């Protein structure tokens, strides 16, 4: 374990004057907890954790950091999977935990203004109370914070219908690396006045500045959601099923997972196998069915898929409770495999390329990991696959990660071949940084570096993430 960087008592006193008493932490447990995220690749080594409660306090902290040449790592719910929130270089960790208020609701605009520390599920529940809906959803909704979701452009299980977090951000308040407060776009849908600066901070992983508030668009609530889980014989059957349903029905989700993922969830308890037939792969699809003809059409498509032998078995939800139970087969995967220290790849290509892409990736995996358990799942309806390699008990974490990184080159070169992304929704952080050139051209990276130097000239914002300068 790294030894934490020590700040002088004078500097700690200055920080206390900014955020108030009992709003800084320097004990080892806190440094380890708030200095890390879900990744286990890097040791946290922050100097102090601070908990501002306003945009003005965040500004004062950034000005302090510039004055004393100390870097800042923004921290939200710390659910990230690319080490984007790991403070490993003695940084001040700026936690948004105390900035967790829903500030305003604008019914006519279907918009809510929130602080960055609002938890995803908190926003979803607030939207429900207004008879509205916030559709960006994923397994960590109960702990992820909206500021972090925006900073990584989080995706999740509803992207096929509703898109990424970027689609729902109408405005941002940010504190730049220079210490300026910017109120960007101010919630407007139509604003043709030059550069849309909010989009630089969405997905910017805190490297340009810190998001403190956001204007978020809401949607009408979906009605009578139905879920099907279908067992399929092989990868080749998945995309024809997607096309068959999408040609007749508007899907709100189309998820994919393998038998190993199913088994890990079943072993974890709380859910049962959806049908007796054990299948190599499964798809979960969701759609609105407020009218009986939609249900009739869904059953016709299902029967067609059975006739084509794309589906071996299947189940359709019969109640709200069963909808939730079937979703757990997919949503509980990450938690179920967490004890196996999985090495995660979060990759995407155009949906058109998915069948050929999967075949090539599977060949690479089988030839290089013959003794490893491979857990496939993902949002295959939008071209996003999660490839999880589970650590054998007899390998140390370091040996295991080293083996996985060797094969990364093969996996990511295949991503490059199909003009895909090395990170579909988890961000780049530190874990994907060595491979950024596969998805982004050298010219693009140089432009990104130039933008960082404009917003963050002293390079204090979340150092070591995305790229190095």
Low-confidence stretches: none
CATH class of the domain at 102-220: Alpha Beta
Strand content: 15-25%
Shape: globular
CATH architecture of the domain at 102-220: 2-Layer Sandwich
Task: Determine the mean pLDDT.
Answer: 95
Strand order of the largest sheet: 15-12-14-13-17-18-16
The major β-sheet equals: 7 strands, antiparallel
Query: What is Rg?
Result: 23 Å
The fold-level CATH name of the domain at 102-220 is Uridine Diphospho-n-acetylenolpyruvylglucosamine Reductase, domain 3
Which structural class do the helices and strands define?
Answer: alpha+beta
How many DSSP H or I helices? 16
Distance separating the two termini: 26 Å
Helical residues, percent? 25-40%
Total strand count, please?
18
Q: In words, what does this structure look like?
A:
By secondary structure, this protein is of the alpha+beta class. It has 16 helices and 18 strands. 35% of the residues lie in helices and 20% in strands. Strands 15-12-14-13-17-18-16 form a 7-stranded antiparallel sheet, with helices on both faces. A hairpin with a 4-residue loop joins strand 8 and strand 9. Residues 42-221 form the FAD-binding PCMH-type domain. Pfam families: FAD-oxidase_C (PF02913), FAD_binding_4 (PF01565).
């Amino acid at each position: 374990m790294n030894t934490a960087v020590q700040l002088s008592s004078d500097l700690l006193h200055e920080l206390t004057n900014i955020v108030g008493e009992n709003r800084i932490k320097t004990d080892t447990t806190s440094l380890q907890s708030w200095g890390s995220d879900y990744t286990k690749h890097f040791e946290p080594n922050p100097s102090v954790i601070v908990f501002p409660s306003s945009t003005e306090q965040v500004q004062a902290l950034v000005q302090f950091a510039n004055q004393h040449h100390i870097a800042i790592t923004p921290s939200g719910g710390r659910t990230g999977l690319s080490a984007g929130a790991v403070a490993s270089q003695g940084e001040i960790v700026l936690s948004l935990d105390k900035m967790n208020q829903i500030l305003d609701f604008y019914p006519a605009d279907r918009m809510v203004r929130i602080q960055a520390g609002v938890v995803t599920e908190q926003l979803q529940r607030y939207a429900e109370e207004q008879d509205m809906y916030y559709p960006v959803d994923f397994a960590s909704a109960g702990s992820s914070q909206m500021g972090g979701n925006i900073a990584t452009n989080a995706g999740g299980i509803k992207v096929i219908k509703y898109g990424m977090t970027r689609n729902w951000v109408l405005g941002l308040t940010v504190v730049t690396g220079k210490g300026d407060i910017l109120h960007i776009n101010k919630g407007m849908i139509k604003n043709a006045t030059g550069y849309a600066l909010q989009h630089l901070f969405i997905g910017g992983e805190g490297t340009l500045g810190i998001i403190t508030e956001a204007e978020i668009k809401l949607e009408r609530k979906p009605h009578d959601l139905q879920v099907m889980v279908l067992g399929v014989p092989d990868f080749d059957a998945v995309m024809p099923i997607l096309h068959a349903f999408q040609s007749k029905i508007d899907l709100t989700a189309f998820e994919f997972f393998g038998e190993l993922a199913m088994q890990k969830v079943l072993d974890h308890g709380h859910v049962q196998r959806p049908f007796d037939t054990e299948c190599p792969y499964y798809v979960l699809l969701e759609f609105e069915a407020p009218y009986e003809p939609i249900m009739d059409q869904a059953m016709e498509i299902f029967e067609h898929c059975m006739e084509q032998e794309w589906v071996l078995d299947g189940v359709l939800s019969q109640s709200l409770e069963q909808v939730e139970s079937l979703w757990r087969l997919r949503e509980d995967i990450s938690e179920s495999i967490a004890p196996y220290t999985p090495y995660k790849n979060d990759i995407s290509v155009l949906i058109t390329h998915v069948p050929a892409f999967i075949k090539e990736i599977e060949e690479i995996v089988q030839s290089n990991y013959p003794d490893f358990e491979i857990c496939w799942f993902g949002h295959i309806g939008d071209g996003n696959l999660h490839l999880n390699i589970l650590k054998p008990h007899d390998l140390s974490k370091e040996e295991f990660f080293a083996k996985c990184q060797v094969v990364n080159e093969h996996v990511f070169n295949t991503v490059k071949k199909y003009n895909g992304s090395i990170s579909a929704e988890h961000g780049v952080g530190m874990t994907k940084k060595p491979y950024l050139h596969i998805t982004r051209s050298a010219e693009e990276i140089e432009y990104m570096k130039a933008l960082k130097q404009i917003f963050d000239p002293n390079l204090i914002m979340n150092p070591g993430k995305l790229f190095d300068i």
